[in-house]
Every structure is written in C-alpha cells, then in structure tokens.
C-alpha cells in the first residue's frame, strides 16, 4: 500500500514501498559513503566535519531544496550534513550515456544509461561497485503533480532532491551527464562556501527546468545561459523534427550546442562524458560502440526496443549502470529499467 511522507510544506514522498523500507535503504547507502570516507581518513574527522560544519559552511540553499533536505533528515534521523553531502555527491560521480534520435518520420526518442559510483568501493567477491548496487533499490520513478495534474516525470533516487533524468509530457525530455574539467564542481562548491552564490546547483537547475519551462526552446535557453556549480552536459529532446541537442557547459557559460540535423544526415546525437570534439579516454570509449549500434539499427528502425538494445551493448552497459530510461515526449511514454551487466563486463 502506497504511503506518503511529508518532506516540506509543498512536497510529499509517495513511494511504492513502505516508508520504513525506503528510509532504511537511505540509511544503508549513507552509511556506505561514511565507511568509504572513514577508510581514507580512519580518524572519522571527515564525517565529523560533514555532520557539524557542512550545513553552516554551505549556508542557505535555494527553495524548496533546503526544506526538503531538512525534511529527509528529520524522517530518517540522519544528520542534515550527511543528507546534504549525499545530494552533493551526485554532482561529482555521474558517468552516463545519453542518446536523442529522430526517425525518418520526424519522431523523437530519448534514452539514457545512468552510470554511477565509480571509485566508490569495488566488491571483489561479486565484481560490482558497492554504491552502484546500493543505489538500485533506491531507484524510483517519480510523478511530480500540481493540482492533481502531472507537471513532469523523472527517475531518481530516494533521498536526492535534484533531478538528472526526466521529461515533460508533450514538450521535452532532459538528461544530465557529468563533464570532467579542471574548472570543476569542487571549485564551484568552494566558491559557494566562500560566499559567491550566483550559480545554480546542477541537479537543482535540471529539476527547475523540468518543473517550470513550458517549451523546448525555453528549456534550451535556460540551460545554455544559467551559471551552474559544475561543468555538465545537458541532453535535451523536444517534440518536433530537429529538436534535440547536447549542450556542453562550463560553469559560467556554454561551449557548444550540438543539434540534430536530419536534413543533413545527423539523425542522432550521442553524449557520454567527453567533449564531442575530443577523443574519449581509451579505457572508457562508450561513444564509438553506441554510434556503431545506432548506424547498424538505421533511422527507419528506431523504437524503445532498439534504443534499449543500443544501451545494452557493452561497454555502454557496464558495472556502473544503475538504470536505463526511455522517453517518448510526443506519445507521453516513459519507462525505466534496473540493469545488471553479466560477466565478462567492464567496470565502467
């Protein structure tokens, strides 16, 4: 039986499992992160600082996110600093593959693999990442409603208040991939701590766009121009021919907007975690096999099933993959699947 937990004056958690089960899973994952931190600094001082200092260092976070994180801390009994760090680490450890395609009739599909947890504990007994496996039972499909009507749908993790994957039925779809840069998210967090609070947290701006933007173009414009805390790739799909792009972002501006151009043969865009004009890391080339599979599929054969197959090809599918999401904005279809990568399978 579905039960709802109030997190703030405007937000309810309505979950497909009991509140006790969901909260216990959050506690297990946060405890794993604590254990990993303590493994690096056995004194426990890192977590002591997180518990006692982090909320004060970060100061007031934008609404409604701060209120929701306080609500999560209240209902779980986990210190607020740990809930905040649980939300921050999504800005720093996300390895993903996102695809937007257009078939020969002008119909758009958007798919993504959420890969998460690299370097966060390797289990030598079953060849898995500890945090990746603990995220799977925390994965939920969300339906955000206002006045009993769906505003947007998303796939996320219990306890995380931002959004990395979602769509607004009939309007647009949006996924977020991490971008590696020397001018990275750590610098953005430090700037925030030292009082420069003119940038948006990446997961927060993605949720804000899903909640408030009323068109593909409005969403695109916001994602191009808004200052953000960490470098990122925003992968956006619409409901009309040609409405699909990868926005490559530095923290303070856009470097590149790479768009669908089916009239000139560009009927898909693929984004992993590397700038499209640069070579991928030789140990982590998910881009090339994804493109090969799409070319083999051909434009006329695009469907949820064939996009799922592309995202199931190793190493596009790997030991970090938590879930695969498929989105059809025009038809209002949205589905997510928890994933496992059977051996032999690369770690990322």
From TrEMBL:
Pathway(s) of this molecule: Sphingolipid metabolism; Lipid metabolism; sphingolipid metabolism
Locations listed in the record: Lysosome; Secreted
Protein name, per record: Acid ceramidase
One Gene Ontology term of the molecular function aspect: N-acylsphingosine amidohydrolase activity
InterPro entries per record: Acid_ceramidase-like, CBAH/NAAA_C
Record key words, sorted: Disulfide bond, Glycoprotein, Hydrolase, Lipid metabolism, Lysosome, Secreted, Signal, Sphingolipid metabolism
Reactions catalysed, as given in the entry: N-(acetyl)-sphing-4-enine + H2O = sphing-4-enine + acetate; an N-acylsphing-4-enine + H2O = sphing-4-enine + a fatty acid
Example of a GO biological process term: sphingolipid metabolic process
E.C. number(s) listed in UniProt: 3.5.1.23
Coiled-coil features, chain-numbered ranges: none
């Amino acid at each position: 039986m579905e039960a709802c937990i109030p997190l703030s004056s405007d937000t309810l958690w309505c979950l497909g499992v009991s509140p006790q089960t969901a909260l216990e899973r959050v506690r297990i994952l946060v405890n794993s992160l604590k254990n990993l931190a303590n493994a690096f600094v056995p004194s426990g001082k890192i977590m002591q600082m997180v518990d006692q200092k982090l909320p004060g260092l970060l100061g007031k976070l934008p609404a409604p996110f701060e209120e929701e994180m306080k609500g999560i801390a209240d209902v779980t009994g986990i210190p607020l600093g740990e809930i905040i760090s649980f939300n921050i680490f999504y800005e720093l450890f996300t390895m993903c593959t996102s695809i937007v395609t257009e078939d020969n009739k002008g119909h758009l599909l958007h798919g993504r693999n959420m890969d998460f947890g690299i370097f966060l504990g390797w289990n030598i007994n079953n060849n898995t990442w500890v945090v990746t496996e603990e995220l799977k039972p925390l994965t939920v499909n969300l339906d955000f409603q206002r006045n009993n009507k769906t505003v947007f749908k998303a796939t996320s993790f219990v306890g995380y208040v931002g959004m990395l994957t979602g769509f607004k039925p009939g309007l647009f779809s949006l996924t977020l991939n991490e971008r590696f840069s020397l001018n990275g998210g750590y610098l953005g967090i430090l700037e925030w701590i030292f009082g420069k609070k003119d940038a948006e947290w990446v997961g927060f701006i993605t949720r804000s766009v899903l909640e408030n933007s009323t068109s593909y173009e409005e969403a695109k414009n916001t994602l191009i121009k808004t200052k953000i805390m960490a470098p990122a790739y925003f992968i956006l799909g619409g409901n009309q021919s040609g409405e699909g792009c990868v926005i490559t972002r530095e923290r303070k501006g856009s470097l590149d907007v790479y768009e669908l151009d089916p009239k000139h043969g560009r009927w898909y865009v693929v984004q992993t975690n590397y700038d499209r004009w640069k070579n991928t890391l030789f140990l982590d080339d998910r881009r090339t096999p994804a493109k090969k599979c799409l070319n083999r599929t051909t434009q006329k054969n695009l469907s949820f099933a064939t996009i799922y197959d592309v995202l199931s090809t190793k190493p596009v599918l790997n030991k970090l993959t938590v879930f695969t999401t498929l989105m059809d904005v025009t038809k209002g279809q949205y589905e997510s699947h928890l994933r496992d990568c059977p051996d032999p399978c690369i770690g990322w």
